[in-house]
Amino acid sequence: MSDYGQIRFRRLILIIMLVALVLFIKYKNGERRAYAGIPEPIQTEAEGQTKIYVDDYDVTIDYLYAYDIEALVIGTKKYSEWDIAGKLAPKDLGLAWGDVAAYNDVIDFHWRQSGRWLNWHVDSMEEISEVGGVADVNRQSSNNHVIAADTDVRSTIAKIRRGDHVHLKGYLISLKGVSSEGNTYTWVSSTSRTDSGAHACEVFYVTDARILD
Per-residue pLDDT averaged across 13-28, rounded? Predict the structure, then answer.
């Protein structure tokens, strides 16, 4: 092969590698998209509890409400499993429905997850008039600390990416863990769609998880 042919071949290989990298990143992180017609989550009274053992903690999970949500995934965030919170819920899901999900491709909410929070901002407040303003953006989106009820649910949650249309069922919960050394850990879910700020995230014990498309 001539020097010119070798240069062309190397360039071709480089292009293929770059395309493969872009496709891998897109697959891994998902993409921003919109989905119209997603209804409000369904929250109903519930009773009962379950117990699990995690990271030397006996954990009692009390069901506050049954929770059934169809949603557009606006973000996912993995957290280290070095502590009990990370072992219980290694992945947070940012979810949206209603007008926020429908306009997510037109309005860039700049969704960002960190420190177990979901934050957003827009370039102009006029943009969100389409979805009803700040209160309605907060009402139609949520950050969810997702605790899988079994290995099948955990496997499905691990596959969920930004842009997926999902259906999750389970319970909003409060939990208390007590370690063998007597240390305690508590986590309590928000049970309102209208709150924001600290303690506004859903602690969601998921018993059924499906990726619809």
Answer: 48
